[in-house]
Fold this protein.
Amino acid sequence: MENLELPRSVEIIEVGPRDGLQNESNFVPTKVKAAFIEALWQAGFKEMEITSFVSPKWVPQMGDAAEVIRLSGNHPGTIVLTPNKRGIDTALASGARAVAVFIGVSSSFNQKNINKTTDEALNGLIPHIRELKNKGVFVRACISTAFHCPYEGEIAPADTIALCKVLADAGVNELSVADTIGKATPQESFSLFSLLKRELPGVLIAAHFHDTRKMALANIYASLQAGVTRFDSSAGGLGGCPFAPGASGNAATEDVVYMLHRMGIETGVDLNLLNHAISVVEPHLSRELTSWYYQSYKKEQHS
Ligand code: HMG
Ligand code: MG
């Protein structure tokens, strides 16, 4: 059989405790979050977004961020998300060594998500990014609506690339480029990630796919072929943004890891321990999780 040009290993950045639990209709108790995060580290992840410092009025599900960091922030791969100076200061005071800032390409989305236009948000973030870099903090920039916006429709790749370039010039270590509403096709993913890899060789590039239309795995496969070796995904397929109508869960980590392992690509993640981690949080959610691999694990447990 002919072999595809694929990497031997990839890094999975687990985002379930943040992207996942921010979008659940109920508040997951802080101690359960801590147990979930610990079980995920045990499953072998090296990097994880564990919480976000955002306004508790806007996202009450993340209102316990300081306590989550206190209980679970000691691991070297811990990342916390925040959109502003207040969140950055609180995160640093809580001991965070890696911060993810976030901004969408489209102004309409930014207005709904952070109450700012894209230009206002960018102008606000740049000095903070420089300050974080001066302090030796790892900075990840999450780029929402990189393909499609729930309010403005299709996004021109040139606009996404231009925003990524400004952030790369400001010194971010990583760009996590997101299909926020799960509408990108494999062709769109291959094309955008090929351009980003070519035009921004000095910055880490991660792909972040929501799975609204069940195209996340196909998009990951297309992005692998474009040279992407870092993927955000969410245990149990949790996830979504409360301010992006139609943004259902992220690519389910266990389905992504299963596919990659079957293709001979290493992730360092133990699938059994990952399924166990999901079973720690599932009873505290208001719904059952439906990812394929986790469902088959549950059937096995009950047979
Ligand atoms: P605002 O109302 O315009 O601004 O919100 P504000 O400065 O008046 O803040 C409102 C209140 O929040 C104030 O409290 C602030 O002190 C407080 P009050 O004085 O009224 O009592 N506040 C904070 N509290 C804790 N931590 C903070 C913080 N900042 C302000 N950091 C703001 C503007 C940006 C704060 C608000 O819009 C916000 O918090 N938005 C966050 C929305 C969010 O979390 N969205 C989901 C994450 S992004 C995502 O999921 C996409 C991603 O996964 C990629 C993809 O899939 O696309 C990353
Ligand atoms: Mg997301």
Q: What stands out?
A: The longest helix spans residues 118-134.
